[in-house]
Each structure stands twice: as C-alpha cells, then as structure tokens.
Amino acid sequence: MLVDSFGRVATDLRVSVTDRCNLRCTYCMPPEGLAWIPGDELLSAAELVRVVRLAVDQGVQEVRFTGGEPLVRPDLEEIVAGVAALPDPPSLSLTTNGIGLTTRAQSLKDAGLTRINVSLDTLDAGRFRTLTRRDRLTDVLDGIVAAQRAGLAPVKINTVLMRSINDDEVLGLVEWALEQGLVLRFIEQMPLDAHKSWSRAEMVQAHEILDQLEAAYTLRATRAPRGSEPAETWDVLGADGTARGTVGVIGSVTRPFCSACDRVRLTSDGQLRNCLFAQDETDLRAPLRAGASDDEVVALMQSCLAAKRAGHGIDDPTFLPPPRPMSAIGG
Ligand code: SAM
Predict the structure, then answer these.
(1) pLDDT, position 314
(2) Where does ligand 1 bind, in terms of residues with CB under 6 Å?
(3) How far apart are the CA of 241 and the centre of ligand 1, in A?
(4) What is the pLDDT of residue 198?
(5) Element (H, E) at 158
(6) Nearest-5° angle of CA 269, CA 275, CA 277?
(7) Atom 18 in ligand 1: which residue has the minimum CA distance?
(8) What pLDDT is stored for residue 113 in this prediction?
(9) Residue 122 C-alpha to ligand 1 middle, in angstroms?
C-alpha cells in the first residue's frame, strides 16, 4: 500500500508523459517555452507501464495521463493500451488541451481510455489566441466533439478563471457546457506558473465563482460526497426543476482537500512526487535503468509517500512554490 504518516492512502496516480506543450498559456509558460527535459531522460512507454503496474499492485485504482500536453507524445496510445492490459487495470483518464483529439480520440478510446478532461479557459477566439499564444480554439472545440463521438464519458472541461482576463465568461461558459452536455469545472489559479508571478490577491476565489453561479441559477449540491474529489459540484436546475447538467468549482487554494488527498504523481522523467507542491521528488528512473527489482522500486514509492506532508501549505508564511512549474510536474 502507498500510505502516508497521516493514514492517507494513494489510489490515484497522475502520470505525466511529457513536459512539452503546443500551447504557451501566459499563466503557465513563457512564449519561447521552457528548457525541455531531454528525450533520453523521459520514461519510455515500457518504463511508464512498469511503474504504473507497480503502483496498481500497491492499490492504485485510477490513472490520469497528463503533461505538458500528453497528446504531443506519439506513443500515448501504446502507453494507455499497456496500462489497460494490466491484470487488474485501473480506470484510465486523460487531461489535455484537446488539440489533436479529432484524429486520436477514437484510437485512445480503443486503447482503453474511458474519460477525458479538456482544459479551456475562453470561448472567444481572439482571447484564446492572446491567452495561449496560439490560434487553435477551433481545434480544441472540434476535439471536444470528437471525444464525445468516440464515447469518452464524461467529457469534463477545466477552466482556470483569472481576474480581468476571463472572469466575465463564467455564465457564457456554463451555458455552452450545459448545451453541449459537458461537465464544466472552474479552478482557482495556483502558484505554479513558470515565472512565479501568482498573486493571491489577484486570484479569483471559489466563493466569488459560486456567488456568480448562485445569482444566475438554481443550484442543488450533488449528492456524491466530496471525499477526495477536489471539485464541489452542483446540478444546475431548469425552470421545471430538472437538472440541466452539472457544474463544479475546484477551490484548491481557498478550499483545499489535502486531508482527503489520495494522489501521487509521476513526472515524465520518472520522479515520484507525493504532492503537487512537494519540494522533493523520489527518483525512480535511475533505479529502473540500473536494474532495480520490483520490490526495490516499490520500497522507493512507499518511502516517497510516507514523507507526504499534511497539506500543500500555500497559506504558510514559509510557503515556497515547487522548484518545477506545473507543466513539468504534470497538471
Ligand atoms: N496540457 C494539458 C491540459 O491543457 O490540460 C495538461 C497539462 S495542464 C498543466 C493541466 C491543467 O493545469 C490545465 O487545465 C491548465 O489550465 C491548468 N493550470 C496550469 N497552470 C495552472 C495554475 N497556475 N493554476 C491552476 N491550474 C493551472
């Protein structure tokens, strides 16, 4: 079991397959990109599948592939299929910006993917271009449709709200998501940007988002208990009292869910992290490549988890953002 000193058990593994991205979101990385991890330092498909197999043996039940942008990795289907072929396969999902789904949603579904989260912060083409420094909104929207057609369900949309940038789109995004049958979740911006310019004062807080939603809609809290699920979710009720769909808010900063956290993260270069905000990583790549046995790798995984802190500590006066940005850790 992957358990920490507070008794939390890791059952949800986030696997970053690359640190590279085909967008340059202003809040994530600079226009020129970052110093990418050299190709030979990335875990191969076989190495990734081996680590996931060991994690599953230790009780992991959910695996989410992320990045960087996971779709820039041409062997993503091979990785998904390798994990799906494990004796007791975990549930498999993907977090993506959606670019490339038009051609790959079906092959990913066929490989064993079941669910997908697409990140989208605006429905305005000009604003999308400014925010991501790429003119790809149509590709993202087409990718979302392709994911739905391929039968990936649910398709969730993740939106980071930023003051004076896209916080006027709350209701427009909700209406669009309800019409398209998508589950939209608004996410508080976290101190994870490459340029370390995050400011708590500037952050759009969960309660502000909820205030906007409550002013416009009749909401009913979904019955599922929050547990380790980061999103608080509500059914949006129509005039006749039936649910039109579901909307969520992820208040990672102001409503942290650390006490119920069941996550562990593997970076694309084979470092295990017990928290998104951890300062330390446990190197699995070197031992994997030096011929470590399964038991030896598992022992490293267990000691990594054992050192997990109680919380992300963003509110601590001594808080330091992690040494690597979100794109290199895996969002
Ligand atoms: N490229 C993929 C994507 O776009 O979904 C996966 C990686 S991306 C880093 C994952 C998510 O993290 C995206 O929804 C992105 O908007 C979000 N993100 C990036 N920086 C963030 C920050 N500082 N705070 C909160 N979310 C952030």
Answers:
(1) 87
(2) 21, 27-28, 66-67, 69, 95-97, 119, 158, 160, 187, 189-190, 192-193, 326-327, 331
(3) 34
(4) 87
(5) strand 155-160
(6) 90
(7) 331
(8) 98
(9) 14
Q: In what order do the strands lie in the sheet with 263-266?
A: 218-221, 232-237, 243-250, 183-187, 155-160, 115-119, 91-96, 62-66, 12-16, 263-266, 271-273, 282-283
User: Residues in the chain, how many?
Assistant: 331
Helices (H), the chain: 45-57, 76-84, 101-111, 125-132, 137-149, 170-180, 206-216, 285-289, 294-306, 326-329
Measured in Å, residue 119 CA sits from the centre of ligand 1 at: 7
Give pLDDT tens digits for 228-275.
Answer: 778 899 999 999 999 999 999 999 999 988 999 999 999 999 999 999
Shortest-distance Cα residue to atom 2 of ligand 1 = 96
pLDDT of residue 227: 66
pTM of the predicted structure, to 2 decimals:
0.96
Q: Which residue from 34, 93, 95 has its CB within 8 A of the most atoms of ligand 1, so it is best to mutate?
A: 95
DSSP 268-319: TTSEEESSTT-S--EE-HHHHHTT--HHHHHHHHHHHHHT--SS--TTSTT-
Residues in the chain with pLDDT values less than 50: none
